[in-house]
Structures are given as structure tokens and as C-alpha cells.
Specification:
By secondary structure, the chain is an alpha+beta fold. The protein has 2 domains: 289 residues, no CATH class; 132 residues, Roll (Nuclear Transport Factor 2, Chain: A). The chain contains 16 helices and 4 strands. Strands 1-2-3-4 form a 4-stranded antiparallel β-sheet, covered by helices on one side. Strand 1 and strand 2 form a beta hairpin. The protein starts with 10 loop residues before the first helix and ends in a 10-residue tail after the last strand. 32% of the residues are buried.
């Protein structure tokens, strides 16, 4: 079992620190040489930013260690694919004795559409791809806040994936080695630590709310109140960390890597500056988004005031109104475009339209009306419609809740009320028409 004191001691991190330190020393030497008439203005300009670069690098390198020191015992761990500005924000709050607020932000992120863009990567791992449909069910349950079903499913998926990867024992077995050389997720302060916490014995029935995904208590029916965003979020955080653990194992198998061209001093410096610059841009973007989320408030819409003629562009109700028109006109291709497709960029819309046609062709819409609009989160709203339709020569009448999710056209997280966003329905409403 690998045991390193700090993630910042990992070889890849240590190399980055050594490179920046080497550049700093070189910068001081160049200043000495310039006194004797040896001067290169371009190089001096490039190295003038090194003191600040060194400071930023040290801050960047220590984030995973600081995060784990604050949160690993609470069930959150740093991993390679974790949102770095989120990690930094949580650390800042914890440093100010606001760990509860930090935990709430982490729980919100890991149960919101913001994590959705990561899920498509699971298709690249055979062990995760095999369970992709179960992961999809857990994701949709999470978005709809059905944590009572998402949590047990995620715990089973996590255990099965690790069992297949290790070809020995599951995630919750003490015999499973969850450490890997040069990894954040698989550091001794990461997966191994929370595995032991999650695997704690739960021998008595407990009806007090818990905030850790105790595997034995939940799956054996002893912990009865696990239905919250903290438990679900920690399961998702663990699943992402397991994926990163698997990636680290695959990289280790591929070593020794083929010899690559050694970058020049200028190329190395530019790459370090670009990495930190990208991180700063992402941090600014994330902080702006989190500020907007904090300030967001759901609308209070009186059902008596709902009028399709007043629906605003880029609103969930406008998209539902369009959906109903597409059903009325039997435009199944347009409905396929309006459906939320989980974690995939390569959707065959023609095939999806065919599926929708098979479900709706014998259900002829006669009348429809939006009767309520409820904003559940900054990115999710539920629009309930009252529909009258003909099915097998019978006149049917139902109220169908449509859960809508929004995103930017680029796929980035969007917030209800913004312009240039796209709403899609995430529950297959047509199946409710049979009931």
C-alpha cells in the first residue's frame, strides 16, 4: 500500500514545483549576469512574473491537501476531475469556520446539473460503461431529488465497479488497495480514508438523519433517514474519485511511457503560466456562477395568471408550450430535440424521433393547458400540464408534471431567467399517458 504524507509530494506536483523553483533561481542568476553586460530583454520580461507565478503555483499545489484536511472526515475528498474553484471556495469557507456552508455548497454542486458534463467520460471505462444505464437512473433520480432511491443505487454501483476493477473485492472491502502512485483520488488521504468511514458498522436501527453514506446502515435497512443531498452528493463525489482512480491505474500500466521531446525553458514556462491562467479564468467564472446561484430566487407564479401569450422567451413554460404544439402537430423530430439526453453528445435524433413516434402516434392530443409552474432550483423547473387526448378510441384526461432542465447552448450551466439558454424535459412524459 502506498503511503505519502501529502498529495503535493506526488511526482507530477513535485515536478511542477521544481520547475517553478528552477525558473526562479535562473531568474536571479540572469539578474546577476546582466550586471556584467549580459542581457536578454525578452527573457527578462518572461521571468519578471516568476515571483507571483511561484506564489500561485504553491497555492494551487496545496489545494487538494488542504481540502482533504478540512473535509475527508466528513465524506468529501479531492480528486483529479473535481472542480478546482469549488474546492478553493470550500477551503476558504472552512478557514473562516464556515464548514457547514462549505458542505452545503459541495452538496449542491454534486446533486445539480453542474456535474452532468463529467458523466459522459464514464463511457471510456468498461467497468463504468457496463453500468451506465444504472448511473443514468441515479443521476435522474438525483436531479429530481429522489435521494432515497439514488443513494442505494450509487452504493451498489460503486461496490460493483471496484469489484470489477480490482478483480478481487469491492470498494467496501478492507482488502481492496485503493491507492495508486501519483494520484490525488487514490492518495492515502482519499478513497481509502472515506471507504473506512462509509464502511462503519451500523448495528442498531437509527431514525435520526445521517449525513454520511453508511453502506451497512443504508443497504441493510438500519439507517432510515439518509434521504438528503449531503449523502447523495458524497456518493457522487466518491464515484468520480473512483473513475479518477481507475484512470491513474491505467496510466500506471502504460509506464514506461514513450520518450517525449523535452520542452525548452520558454515552452515549460509558457505551459505553467497557461495552466495557472486557465485556472484563474475558471475560478472567476465559477465564482460569478455561484454568486448568481446564491442570489437566485424561485418565481411565485399564481396559476390564475398563467397565460401562454405572456410566456417569456428562454423560460421553461415557453418550451413546454412549444412541446405541446409539437405533440398536437405530430412533430416527433422536434420533440426529440426537446428531450434531455443524459451524458451524451452523439445522440441520433432520427432514432429518438422514431421512439417518440412509437409512443405518441396513437395518443392524439385534443386539448392542453399549463396549470402550474414551480421553480425547484436555479436550473430545474416543474411545469404541470392538463391534457385531453384520445387513446384507443377512449377519451383520456390527465395532469402530467414535466420536469425541465436548462443549460447554455454550449452545455455550460445555466440559470433560470438568463437569456440564450435552452430548456429540455428530463422525464419521459409520454409513459405517463398509459397510466
Amino acid at each position: 500500500m502506498i503511503d505519502k504524507n501529502k498529495i503535493s509530494d506526488n511526482p507530477s506536483y513535485a515536478k511542477l514545483r521544481t520547475d517553478v523553483l528552477g525558473f526562479s533561481i535562473l531568474g536571479r542568476l540572469l539578474k546577476i549576469f546582466s550586471v556584467f553586460g549580459s542581457k536578454n530583454d525578452k527573457l527578462e520580461n518572461a521571468l519578471s512574473a516568476l515571483p507571483e507565478l511561484k506564489k500561485q503555483t504553491e497555492h494551487f499545489l496545496h489545494l487538494p491537501d488542504r481540502f482533504n484536511e478540512h473535509f475527508s472526515k466528513s465524506g468529501w475528498i479531492a480528486h483529479e476531475s473535481m472542480n478546482m474553484p469549488l474546492m478553493e471556495k470550500a477551503i476558504e469557507l472552512a478557514d473562516k469556520d464556515q464548514s457547514d456552508k462549505a458542505g452545503n455548497e459541495l452538496a449542491y454542486y454534486f446533486t445539480s446539473p453542474q456535474m452532468g458534463w463529467l458523466l459522459n467520460r464514464f463511457r471510456t471505462s468498461p467497468e463504468l460503461a457496463l453500468r451506465y444505464n444504472l448511473i443514468e437512473f441515479a443521476y435522474l433520480d438525483t436531479l429530481e431529488k429522489r435521494f432515497y432511491s439514488a443513494v442505494p443505487l450509487l452504493l451498489m454501483v460503486i461496490d460493483g465497479i471496484v469489484n470489477d476493477i480490482s478483480k478481487s473485492k469491492g470498494f467496501f472491502s478492507e482488502a481492496t488497495d485503493l491507492t495508486v502512485w501519483d494520484s490525488i483520488a487514490a492518495h492515502s488521504s482519499g478513497l481509502s480514508l472515506i471507504r473506512d468511514i462509509f464502511n462503519a458498522p451500523r448495528k442498531k436501527t437509527n431514525d435520526v438523519e445521517i449525513f454520511l453514506p453508511y453502506r451497512n446502515g443504508i443497504l441493510h435497512g438500519r439507517d432510515l433517514k439518509y434521504n438528503n443531498a449531503h449523502v447523495a452528493g458524497k456518493c457522487w463525489c466518491t464515484l468520480f474519485a473512483i473513475f479518477d482512480w481507475k484512470q491513474a491505474m491505467d496510466r500506471q500500466k502504460d509506464k514506461p511511457a514513450a520518450a517525449s521531446k523535452v520542452p525548452t525553458l520558454k515552452e515549460s514556462l509558457q505551459q505553467i503560466k497557461k495552466t495557472l491562467s486557465d485556472y484563474q479564468k475558471h475560478k472567476i467564472s465559477h465564482n460569478l456562477l455561484m454568486k448568481e446561484i446564491e442570489q437566485w430566487k424561485p418565481r411565485n407564479i399564481d396559476p390564475s395568471e398563467i397565460n401562454s401569450e405572456n410566456f417569456k422567451k428562454y423560460s421553461p413554460e415557453k418550451e413546454v408550450d412549444s412541446l405541446l404544439k409539437n405533440w398536437l402537430n405530430k412533430n416527433y423530430g422536434k420533440i426529440a430535440e426537446q428531450q434531455y439526453h443524459f451524458g451524451s453528445k452523439d445522440v441520433n435524433l432520427g432514432k429518438e424521433a422514431g421512439k417518440i413516434r412509437s409512443e405518441l402516434h396513437d395518443k392524439v392530443l385534443k386539448e392542453s393547458e399549463i396549470i402550474s409552474i414551480s421553480d425547484k432550483s436555479p436550473s430545474i423547473s416543474v411545469v404541470t400540464v392538463h391534457v385531453k387526448y384520445e387513446f384507443n378510441e377512449n377519451q383520456m384526461e390527465k395532469q402530467i408534471p414535466l420536469r425541465m432542465i436548462c443549460a447554455m447552448e454550449s452545455g455550460d450551466t445555466a440559470i433560470n431567467g438568463q437569456d440564450n439558454i435552452r430548456w429540455r424535459f428530463i422525464n419521459k412524459f409520454m409513459y405517463d399517458l398509459y397510466l
